[in-house]
Amino acid sequence: MTDLPDTMRALVLPAWGARLELRELTRPDPGPGEVLIRLAASPINPSDLMTLKGLYSVPADPPLVPGLEGAGQVVAAGAGVLPKTLMGKRVACASAAGGLWAEYIVLPFDRVVTLPPDLPLGRAAMSAVNPLTAIALIDEARRRGHRAVVSTAAAGQLGRMIRRRGAEKGVEIINIVRRAAQVDALKAEGARHVLDETAPDFDAGLKTLCTTLNCRMALDALGGQMTFRLLEALGPRCDILIYGALSEAPATLHPGTMIFKEARVEGFWLSQWLPRKSLPAMLWTLRQATRALKGGFAESSVARIVDLAEAADAPAAYAADMSAGKTLIRLSDADLGVAPGS
Ligand SMILES: NC(=O)c1ccc[n+]([C@@H]2O[C@H](COP(=O)([O-])OP(=O)(O)OC[C@H]3O[C@@H](n4cnc5c(N)ncnc54)[C@H](OP(=O)(O)O)[C@@H]3O)[C@@H](O)[C@H]2O)c1
């Protein structure tokens, strides 16, 4: 580890809601069973925006380094045979504790996934959170016997993945967006059913579609009033899976509708769903996601790539224009293999 610097640059959140600060921190060393990763890139996700506001489930209080997923190269390994097998490998990684908006991170060796040689680091950086969630949500729909599903925030990267994964697995998606231009964009991509939640006839149109398609499930990334609107539109014995809180408002439910429809409303969190899988099932899920990152259902659009030193205001810029695509924070001079607009 002699050729590695003693310090690293990182974006630090000094207090909930405060502006990020670029700071020089001590570079961590890997302990037994751990690897040190020189990070190449990490995206900004809605979960990061919530972390910055203190609304996400992170185990520590500020000051903290945000960033929940990324990709890079293993440059040092702690004691143990298995960590050493990863030396020099290009890997994707995720950490529920954050820490990815930095030049280096130490993680347990079993928290990293080695990458196929042709997978660009910029794509691999977005491999954990959304692709696995799209697989999980469509799996959940199929497991419960649903062949038609309403999906909110459908112009986002995960919404688009849900639509493409649904098409692969025979689940019809009713896509809900919030701007007329997003209706056109999704239809141009091949979406059959797209509704604008701001249109005056939205609720009636959604109810008609749900009846026509016998749709009794919704995947809800919004909460707030949308959960109530979904419940009103879905058929009886419906399921609503709330997996996002983009409205930042409490989900509204009408007890009468809940009772007479015998509705079930549940939360979904990937961090709980994935560890419940057996090791073979987990590895199979990871493999499916990795294979679909380039040209498959799990490909994300990249709107911006911002150097670490310039990234303090990048979360705000991303929040103002989310459907345009992901913002990647560049954490080293490694070739990311993606360009803005791709
Ligand atoms: N539970 C889990 O395990 C899990 C895992 C992964 C992701 N998620 C959640 O999935 C959601 C989508 O993530 P993503 O990566 O796809 O985000 P994204 O690419 O940034 O897209 C977000 C989308 O939501 C729309 N949106 C934002 N605020 C909204 C609001 N108040 N009302 C209606 N639409 C709104 C945006 O539209 P505009 O462009 O018009 O703003 C955009 O189309 C997030 O809530 C994220 O936290 C959850």
Give a written overview of the molecule.
The protein is α/β, with parallel strands linked by helices. The chain has 12 helices and 15 strands. The strands form 3 sheets. Strands 3, 4, 5, 6, 7, 14 and 15 form a 7-stranded mixed sheet that branches. A 6-stranded parallel sheet has the order 10-9-8-11-12-13, with helices on both faces. A two-stranded antiparallel ribbon has the order 1-2. Helix 6 links the parallel strand 9 and strand 10 (193-196). 46% of the residues are buried. The model has no long low-confidence stretch (mean pLDDT 96). It binds NADP nicotinamide-adenine-dinucleotide phosphate. Residues 45-47, 129-130, 133, 153, 155-159, 178-179, 221-222, 243-244, 246-247, 268-270, 322-323 line the site of NADP nicotinamide-adenine-dinucleotide phosphate (NAP).
**Largest beta sheet, briefly?**
7 strands, mixed
User: What characteristic shape results from the CA principal axes?
Assistant: globular
Cα(first) to Cα(last) distance is 36 Å
SSE string: EEEHEHEEEHHEHEHEHEHEHEHHEHE
Domains (count): 2
Number of helical runs? 12
CATH-level-4 superfamily name of the largest domain: Medium-chain alcohol dehydrogenases, catalytic domain
Under the CATH scheme, which class of the largest domain? Alpha Beta
Q: How is the quaternary structure best described?
A: single chain
Structural class based on helices, strands and sheet pairing: alpha/beta
Looking at the structure, the CATH topology of the largest domain is Quinone Oxidoreductase, Chain A, domain 1
In the CATH hierarchy, the architecture of the largest domain is Alpha-Beta Complex
Regions with pLDDT < 50 over 5+ consecutive residues? none
> Would you tell me the overall average pLDDT?
96
Estimate the strand proportion: 15-25%
Distinct ligand kinds? NADP nicotinamide-adenine-dinucleotide phosphate
Helix content: 25-40%
The count of strands amounts to 15
